[in-house]
Write a structure and sequence with these properties.
The chain is built from 8 helices and no strands. By secondary structure, the chain is an all-alpha fold. The protein has one domain. Helix 6 packs antiparallel against helix 7. The longest helix is centred in the N-terminal third of the chain and has 25 residues. The radius of gyration is 17 Å and the shape is globular. The N and C termini lie far apart (47 Å). The model has no long low-confidence stretch (mean pLDDT 91). This is Phosphatidic acid phosphatase type 2/haloperoxidase domain-containing protein. It comes from Candidatus Beckwithbacteria bacterium CG10_big_fil_rev_8_21_14_0_10_34_10. Keywords: Membrane, Transmembrane, Transmembrane helix.
């Protein structure tokens, strides 16, 4: 009976981890940020630029690394396997900001609020493992809140964050401190 319950919680945890996966949420976050940013550049073009540089190139690199066996699983469980993927992501983010500097300088401070936590996350990856699910889900909830302006989103968000944290902990992907640090980094966007 205990084994069946354990198997069921593992299945539920896996489902929660996939529904609230950073890969899918990052795309939604980028769309919402392009809509919220004060920009001289058309919002649709801003989204396409961020989609290509901040999402698509790293995503393709991730799948290439996964296919070649340089990343052993979808969650990039091993810290040392994260470094090359996150390095490519950070380079594409820096290229995105360089282009923004010329096309839409007004939007840079807004984007920085959301991307600085990821840069800190990247640096921490060299020393320890931090939950990418928690940082991304925190930013996902905050971006939806900023977009809608509805405080109910925050209440629902707290429930989502708890479910994701429990699932990541249950799957033994992260320790409690790694989950807390990931959430804290996401909350940096509020400062």
């Amino acid at each position: 009976m205990k084994r069946k319950i354990g198997d069921l919680t593992r299945v539920i945890s896996t489902i929660i981890s996939r529904i609230f996966d950073p890969i899918w949420e990052s795309l939604i976050i980028l769309f919402l940020l392009s809509q919220l940013a004060k920009s001289e550049f058309p919002k649709g073009s801003l989204f396409l630029l961020s989609f290509f540089l901040v999402y698509l190139i790293p995503w393709l690199f991730f799948h290439y690394q996964l296919k070649k066996g340089k990343i052993s699983d979808w969650d990039i469980t091993k810290r040392e396997e994260r470094i090359s993927f996150y390095s490519v992501s950070k380079v594409t983010i820096l290229i995105f900001f360089s282009i923004l500097f010329f096309l839409s300088p007004k939007s840079i401070p807004f984007y920085l609020k959301f991307l600085i936590p990821f840069l800190i996350f990247y640096l921490l990856t060299f020393f320890n493992k931090v939950s990418g699910h928690m940082i991304t889900n925190t930013l996902f909830i905050l971006s939806i809140y900023f977009y809608t302006g509805k405080s109910d989103i925050l209440y629902i968000g707290i429930i989502i964050l708890l479910l994701v944290a429990l699932s990541r902990f249950n799957l033994k992907k992260h320790t409690l401190p790694q989950l807390i640090i990931g959430t804290g980094l996401g909350l940096l966007a509020l400062i």
